[in-house]
Every structure is written in structure tokens, then in C-alpha cells.
Amino acid sequence: MAVLRGQKKLQALDFWLRNPDYLADELLNAAEAGRSVPGVSPVDRAAALLEGDEPDLESYPMIRWRYGAYESLDDALALLVAHGLIGIDAIGTAPDIDRWDYCLLPAGRQDAQEMRSQEPDLSWYDERAALVLLLAGDRSGSALKELQYAQGEYERTHMGEDIAGILPRVRARLSALQSKVSEGSA
């Protein structure tokens, strides 16, 4: 059974999944810091994320709330729980819940496999989710939120407003980094 521990981490991962420009920027941060991302060239993958219309087509804004990017999970997850696809466990005793754990149940895994075989166009989602998890590594939700808050546009967003995209800035940054790399190899 796959388990994701903590709503803050779920929200942080969801933000990168839904915002390829922020995900590409974090890949560029990794490249510049010399951090490896197993099996991935951060600069090449960032470039692929920023190709064509993908950032516009795949972006789905989140609002800024008390602890960063936020989306109410109740409605979406209630449907998955009702069909026995996921389980949600409260860790702690009400009203002092320490965290929420989200568990993919065997029926959920089976349904996901069936969707993959019936709808191959959804493969981008698997690829994106795998990349987000690789980039996040074993960092906590708080650590991931700190990375996201390091983005000026994210941090300056007023509570309750959509977090603005950073596509033009990331494309310029990618271009500068690619130029620097090709100058170094010439």
C-alpha cells in the first residue's frame, strides 16, 4: 500500500504537479546547486516542461492560504474514499490531529492500472507525478513549502488569491543556463 504522510506534503506536491513552471524552476535550482535528481537531467527535463503550450495547458492554479498553496481536498477525496480507492487516516486524537495520512488501497491501484491501459494519453500524469516525487525526495511538507515560499511571486501572493505563474522568468532562466552550458562545452 502506498502512503503519503501529511496534508502539507500532499498540498506541496500537488502544487508542483499542477504548476509546471514552478516545477521547472525547482529543477533549475537543483541543476545550479549541483543536486542530482536520480535518472533525470534537470536542465533537459525543465526544458521539456516548458516546451510549447504545456505550461498553459497543464497549469491549474492553487490559492495561497495560511500555509501556502492550498486546495480543499474534502470533495475530491470523498469520492475516492466512498469508492474504496483510498483511505485517510488521522494521526493523533481529535481535536489534536498531528497529521493526515493518505493511503492508496488495492482497488485504487487496480483502477489506476485500468485507466492507464484504457487512456494512454494520461501517461503525462504518471510521468509528472514520478518527477515531482523524485524532486521532493524525502523532504517534509514543511521543507517543500519553504522551497515554494522562496519564490517571490508565491510569497507575495495575498491570502485567498491564485498564486501567479512564473513562466516568462523560468523560460529566461532556462535560456541563460543553456547558453552558459553550451559556452562551457564549446
In short:
With 186 residues, this protein is α+β, with helices and mostly antiparallel strands.
> For the report, how would you describe the main beta sheet?
3 strands, antiparallel
Give the SSE order as H and E letters: EHHHHEEHEEHHHHH
The percentage of residues in β strands lies in 5-15%
Report mean pLDDT, rounded to a whole number.
89
Helix residue percentage: 55-70%
Backbone shape:
globular
Terminal-residue CA separation: 49 Å
- Strand runs, count: 5
Sheet/helix structural class: alpha+beta
Strand arrangement across the biggest beta sheet: 1-5-4
Describe this protein's structure.
- Helix 1 (7-18) crosses helix 2, helix 1 (7-18) crosses helix 8 (141-149) and helix 2 runs antiparallel to helix 3 (42-50).
- The radius of gyration is 18 Å and the shape is globular.
- It has helices spanning 7-18, 20-33, 42-50, 54-58, 74-82, 106-118, 123-136, 141-149, 152-156, 167-185; strands spanning 2-5, 63-65, 68-70, 86-93, 96-104.
- The strands form two sheets. It has a three-stranded antiparallel beta sheet. A two-stranded antiparallel sheet has the order 2-3.
- By secondary structure, it is α+β, with helices and mostly antiparallel strands.
- The mean pLDDT is 89.
